[in-house]
User: Fold these one by one.
Assistant:
Number 1:
Amino acid sequence: MTPRHHLDPATLVSHAAGALSPEMAAVADTHLEGCAYCRQQLAAAERVGGVLLSQQQPAASEPQQAARLREDMLARLQQPLPAAANDPSETTNAPRSLDALPRPLQPYFGKSWKALRWRWMAPGVHMIRAPRSSGDTLILLRIAPGKSMPVHSHGGSELTQILKGAYDDELGHFGPGDMADLDSDIEHQPVTSPGVPCICVAALDGPLQFRGWLARKLQPMVGL
Ligand SMILES: [Zn+2]
């Protein structure tokens, strides 16, 4: 299946520069495993970054230079790609067990779908939170089919990769392999598709805020 929603160029540049948190990188890598288009974009960002760094050293470590470098990389990435970038025939990964979680998520959630221990959070919503390794939050969410989530916007940056099932919102249809790389000012109301639960993995900028048991129950819904 070819993903239709991709990582934002700014996220790819940050990833190429090693500037994503481990949690954000795990979600980005989960998308990259299944997306030849984004792998090509990332490779381009890494190439451009290498060239620019070699031109600008040694000052590239200074914040202003680093910001300019990032702008240059973004500008070059937004130029048209060679036709090969869209070649869907490029293979993703060797076949693996149907029970295997995506490899980038295994350090956080284990190897097996069946072994996951889902926690009930709200009607139709289950969650697993990965043990904290940096300041960011990494969660698996399982949302029942045909469920409408509250309208919400995003407080910080967030990457959400759809693993199973699907949802629709104002931005379109998101199915397995799709990435929702959303700005903090986007307001949307996802509705999960009928049939099977929607399972996604999300990395959130910063820790979840807990204020009482109700907020604690609602937070994963608001965080999606
Ligand atoms: Zn992609």
Number 2:
Amino acid sequence: MNTRGRRAHVVCRADELGPGQRLIAACGAVEVGVFNLGGEYFALLNRCPHKSAPLCKGVQRGYLTADEPRQISISASKEVIGCPWHGWEFEIRTGRSYFNPHRVRARSYDAARVSGQEIAEEDPSVPTFRVQREDDYIVVYV
Ligand code: FES
């Protein structure tokens, strides 16, 4: 029950994080924002790489694109998070920043929906969070 050698943390039951919703949870020593983007799960460190604001408490919005000048459209799913302090924006899926995607990035973690059965069978050390075998859970690998 680990991805890239990371430890699994159960953050909630899957039905507590619907599409478009987010939550902030402690995962060991770090605080992580967990996002449900249309049934896919993503996690970012709740600390902005600029001046350490609680990034995941910022405003979520759609992805802006423009095929031509003045032809701007915005995606329905809110895939961008804006920092609440100075407004730097990051892709929730990757942590990449908009203003400098090659140098500035919010720390991201793997997140997944996992059955209680899997958690109970694969890593009994995980349940610091009580799990039921018949439910699904959102797990972040930190
Ligand atoms: S602390 Fe996030 S943009 Fe400044």
Number 3:
Amino acid sequence: MSSILVIADHLNGTLNSSTARAVTCARDLGIDTIDVLVLADDGAALAGEAARIEGVTKVRYADNPANAHPVAATLAPQIVAAVESGGYSHLLGPNTTFGKDLMPRVAAKLGVAMVTDIMAVHGPYEFDRPIYAGNAITTVAASEDQVLVGSVRSASYAEAPNGNDAAVEALTLDAELPSHTRFVNLEQHKSDRPDLQTATKVVSGGRAVGSEENFKLIYDFADKIGAAVGASRAAVDAGYVPNDMQVGQTGKVISPELYMCFGISGAIQHLAGIKDAGTIVAVNNDEDAPIFEVADIGLVGDLFEIIPALEARMQQ
Ligand SMILES: Cc1cc2nc3c(=O)[nH]c(=O)nc-3n(C[C@H](O)[C@H](O)[C@H](O)COP(=O)(O)OP(=O)(O)OC[C@H]3O[C@@H](n4cnc5c(N)ncnc54)[C@H](O)[C@@H]3O)c2cc1C
């Protein structure tokens, strides 16, 4: 019997929308049973939230003080125990920072290969995934005689809507947790702005912004239009912004309705992160910049003149 277990991605008591996106992908597999696993220190409320996601059969939650902070080394053995005791044929997680860290460990512990970045489903064991930094799509067929472990490219799937009332079940997992890896401290960039990976609008700055201080221009503009803020790797490497703001192949893959980028050249590694964006607006003072090949709206000019001009126009 085929059944799917989806790992819930959550932080600070809130379910990340990548969970409902992974459920949308799971529904495409055509397998009736889709359970969600919540690993937390006190996961009942989160489980209740996950139970509202359409398509979910049952939410199983396992409380453990060790789950207060999402440490992949601690979560992986618990997930293996849940998969083995539940007899699941498929295990899916999101390709967020959380899932990218976690899912390969789980696959390794289960002794199976893994399909990363699933962006389309052809059948329970056949998927499309990007290769060459998203410049080509390949169709892969996975082995049917082992547990299918996959990460779901959140940008490729809409959130499954709410409206369900799935069963919720507390679970006791027989898993030995490692002592060699433990949570010590979380250093996190805090922001009141929308979350970069789920925002409908994103404003990004590149190396051309020039400094951490100058990035205030990007933040202020983003705040005026209610957007999240992203950056190119060059801007991150130069220390203008923290690396959790990096958009691209080795950063975050995002799918906003509107992506505005200022002083970003449009290297393929950056474009890999915005393939699923709706409208792309680019401002660059070099009319030959590669970003203009993918931009829906391009403005040739100095970002330090264009941003104030856009703001002035918005105030009119
Ligand atoms: C393995 C690998 C992985 C990578 N992963 C990523 C990734 O995830 N994300 C990512 O972004 N990059 C990534 N890169 C780096 C990528 O190749 C580029 O180096 C990077 O994207 C360049 O950033 P940039 O466009 O901000 O800087 P630059 O290439 O320096 O471009 C700056 C642009 O700003 C324009 N400009 C200058 N002044 C102004 C002005 N006043 N007003 C308007 N425009 C101006 C210039 O014309 C230029 O086009 C990766 C590279 C490798 C090798």
Number 4:
Amino acid sequence: MSSSPKAFDTEFIAEVQRESEQNLALCYQCGNCTAGCPVSFAYDYPVNQIMRLVQTGRKQEALSSHAIWLCASCETCTTRCPNDIDVARVMDVLRHMARRENIVSEKAVGAFWKAFLESVEKHGRVFELGLMANYVGKTGRMFTDVDLAPMALRKGKLGLKAHDIKKLAEIRGIFDRYREQK
Ligand code: SF4
Ligand code: SF4
């Protein structure tokens, strides 16, 4: 973790505000979000400090943090914020920005994200076996949770064939619009 002072990057602040549609200036560092975060113990910066990094325009530190990738998107922070800031959405925006800038600190999580989104774009939903194969291909992590596969197969939780949804074109349109906005 670097503590060297960084320039106050106002463009970065404005970009996070615009993409998350949240007023970051409302955060007064009460720490409620951090107190409720179930994975804060594993973070390099607790979630209120991530908010502070964004408020003070410290782009490099915010985007290269491990916290934004370890976030479980559970939204506890959002429900606990007294100022109605959708903190989970801010974390989500930071992950997308980090991905675009190619500074993903948790490579395996980043690879899972990419495989997940590719599966949704391809089928309109997640095809679990395809997702797993894609993830293994990207990371070489062959045996992650492989012990759960037989039970998941038995319970019908892992389909052997991909089934595209009916309105697949609409889902692909969402991805296209997202890319056009970047
Ligand atoms: S959404 Fe992320 S940052 Fe917020 S409480 Fe859940 S795990 Fe923590
Ligand atoms: S709960 Fe809201 S106001 Fe409090 S530190 Fe977190 S983001 Fe800021």
